[in-house]
Every structure is written in structure tokens, then in C-alpha cells.
Write a structure and sequence with these properties.
Quinone Oxidoreductase, Chain A, domain 1, binds NADP nicotinamide-adenine-dinucleotide phosphate, 332 residues, Rossmann fold, 15 strands, alpha/beta, 7-stranded mixed β-sheet
């Protein structure tokens, strides 16, 4: 079987460009004993992949030039030499930006009976949904009645953060780029207050939604968002540091917030986290999130590109706000 895949051609400088990637035709090997053949159905592009394109030490090793980009994928098994997986089953894998692959059955996770569309296992029922869940409830130590401000609120993680806060009895405030996203947050997702961070004064806009301050700032953006949120925190507030997308394409060192000393007097906790270190919350996440999503209590959106060749464009779109909800590339 032939399979196309996308490789890193050169390291992006600043915002990635299509020319940083190349599409390559490959021939898959025959599946041997214990192996399966998978045709991918939906692939994900995620902001963290930008960090892996930089040649530096981090929690995951950097992509090498010429390497196929790896990330989450949902695929369907088309051939199985394993007693553990049947043809037709959906599986989650991390072989990434490719049409198909051959692997040991043990290298993928079977999804069983799908409770929701396959692509949702890359978003609200997958890694970004889990990030929202553990970041808010675990790292952020959310308590009923908390006022939560989340940046990147119309994205995959942010849109789940605000809705989980609401479901658990809190107040949700979100920032996003553009009027349509702001309307989506308040009208479709039930946020109490939302604003366009590209317009107006960040701090004043947070205060409009939270005149008495915020208990949790869920930081997806960093930079000026973090600085403004610090000025709005209540005593003993928590700041889960989830991401800093405003800085991922920086070509020079970025200034830090100039008001970090607020954390001392206010007794704030700023805590960075990586979702994969919170697998002890997996069973609770699977149970609660599946129930919320299938009952319609928690809504999600996807922005879909079609075709492997459009993966670079979808990836770059994460940095200019092309997506509302999870950015997905469908292959079938
Ligand atoms: N710690 C972890 O384990 C973990 C796991 C997953 C994700 N993350 C982080 O969580 C954050 C959200 O990830 P996601 O997958 O849900 O992505 P996403 O929010 O679905 O997509 C990225 C969004 O970021 C916003 N954005 C881009 N550049 C920006 C800038 N300069 N300033 C402000 N907003 C900007 C855009 O929305 P607007 O139109 O609103 O600007 C864009 O739609 C990222 O920082 C990511 O790295 C962390």
C-alpha cells in the first residue's frame, strides 16, 4: 500500500510556512505476525508541535530535519494479523502526519464503540479535552463558585475549560480573537463574559466580567495576557500555566510579565503542567467528559481541513486564529 506523509524540510523561523514542510510518497511494508494496517481518518495539528520544530531540549525531543511529523491520529484498521484488533476498528495512534501505517497492534489504542464522531477523540474527548480537565480541576484546584478566566477561550482547550467551569458551578470569562468567536463563547457555549483581546484594554475587559477579581487564570497565551490577569487575581488564586502561544513563533527573547511580585503578597500559585503527567485523572476524565459531550451539556466545534496536503496550512492556521474549536484534518 502506498502512503503519503509530511516531513519537516527545514526549521521554521517565526511563523511556519508551507515551504518548511514536504510531502513524500512512501511504500508501506507488508504486515507481519501481530501487526495491523491502519488507514488514518482524522489527524490533528497542535500548537505544541511548533516547539518540537525548534532544536532544543524539552519534555519531548525535537523533530529532526527529514523526519515525518508525529502527532495524534484516528484511523481504521484495514488488515489485522493480531487476535487483539479486528478489521474495521477505530484506533488512536501517534505515528502522525501520514495516510496510513503498519504497526504492532500493541502500538495503538483501540477506541471500542465510538461514543462520538471519530475526530472528537483528537479534541474534546482526547488530549486537548483532557488538558482542560486536568488543568482546571487538578492543577487549578477549581472549587465551586470560582471565577475562572481563560485565554484562547474559543480554541480546543479553552472552550472546554470555560464549559467545565460552568458545569462545576463556577463563572467563566474568556478572551478570543474577533467578534464571531466572542459571540460563540457567550451565545453557544454559555460563557458569562467574553471579549476580543485584539480590541481594547486587556485588564479592563477582564474586570468588566469579574469586578471582584478572578480565582483562576487558565493561561493558554502568556505574555500580556498573563500580565493583565496577574493584576486581576484574588488572594490565593491559581494560575495553571498551560501554554504561551503568543510566544511560540518569537524570534528573539520575549519580555516576562513585569508584575510577578503580585504573586507574593496575594499568595498566588503559578504552576506549569504537561497533560501526560496527569494520567491518574484519565478515568474520571473519560467518564465525565463522555457523559457531558454525549448529553450535549458540553459543546464542541471543529475547524476541518481536508487532505493530507493541507496539514501545513491547518497547522499555520493555529497561529492566526483560523480555527474555532479543534483544528482537524480529515483524510476520508
Ligand atoms: N500543557 C499541556 O499539556 C498542553 C496540552 C495541549 C495544549 N496546550 C496549550 O494550550 C494552548 C491551546 O492549545 P489548543 O490545542 O487548544 O489550540 P487552539 O486554542 O485550538 O488554537 C490556537 C489558538 O490560539 C490563539 N492564538 C494564536 N496566536 C495567538 C496570540 N499571539 N495571542 C493570543 N492568542 C493566539 C488563536 O485563537 P484566537 O483567534 O483567539 O487568537 C488560535 O485559534 C496552547 O498554548 C497549547 O500549547 C498545552
Amino acid at each position: 500500500m502506498q502512503s503519503q506523509e509530511i516531513r519537516l524540510k527545514k526549521r521554521p523561523v517565526g511563523i511556519p510556512e508551507s515551504d518548511d514542510f514536504e510531502i513524500v510518497q512512501t511504500q508501506l511494508p507488508e504486515a507481519t505476525d501481530g501487526e495491523i494496517v491502519v488507514e488514518n481518518v482524522s489527524l490533528t495539528v497542535d500548537p505544541y508541535m511548533r516547539g518540537r520544530m525548534i532544536d532544543r531540549k524539552s519534555y519531548t525531543p525535537p523533530f529532526q530535519i527529514g523526519e515525518t511529523l508525529t502527532g495524534g491520529a484516528i484511523g481504521r484498521v484495514t488488515k489485522s494479523n493480531s487476535p487483539d484488533i479486528s478489521v474495521g476498528e477505530y484506533v488512536e495512534s501517534h505515528f502522525g502526519w501520514r495516510e496510513g501505517f503498519v504497526a504492532k497492534a500493541s502500538a495503538v489504542k483501540t477506541l471500542g464503540n465510538l461514543q462520538a464522531p471519530a475526530s472528537s477523540y483528537l479534541g474534546v474527548l482526547g488530549m486537548p479535552g483532557m488538558t482542560a480537565y486536568v488543568g482546571l480541576l487538578g492543577v487549578g484546584e477549581f472549587k465551586e463558585g470560582d471565577v475562572v478566566f481563560v485565554s484562547g477561550a474559543a480554541g480546543a482547550v479553552g472552550s472546554a475549560v470555560g464549559q467545565i467551569a460552568k458545569i462545576k458551578g463556577g463563572t467563566a470569562i474568556g478572551s478570543a480573537g474577533g467578534e464571531d468567536k466572542v459571540r460563540h463563547l457567550t451565545e453557544d457555549l454559555g460563557f458569562d463574559h467574553a471579549f476580543d483581546y485584539r480590541k481594547g484594554h486587556l485588564e479592563k475587559q477582564i474586570q468588566e466580567g469579574a469586578p471582584d477579581g478572578i480565582d483562576i487564570y487558565f493561561d493558554n497565551v502568556g505574555g500580556d495576557h498573563l500580565q493583565a490577569a496577574l493584576n486581576c487575581m484574588r488572594p490565593n488564586g491559581r494560575i495553571p500555566l498551560c501554554g504561551a502561544i503568543s510566544q511560540y513563533n518569537a524570534t528573539a527573547p520575549v519580555p516576562g510579565p513585569n508584575n510577578l511580585t503580585i504573586a507574593i503578597g496575594m499568595g498566588l500559585t503559578l504552576k506549569g503542567f504537561i497533560v501526560s503527567n496527569y494520567n491518574d485523572m484519565r478515568a474520571d476524565f473519560d467518564r465525565e467528559m463522555t457523559q457531558w459531550v454525549t448529553s450535549g451539556k458540553l459543546k464542541y466545534r471543529e475547524t476541518i481541513f481536508d487532505g493530507l496536503e493541507n496539514m501545513p496550512q491547518a497547522f499555520v492556521g493555529l497561529f492566526d486564529g483560523t480555527n474555532t474549536g479543534k483544528m482537524i484534518v480529515n483524510l476520508q
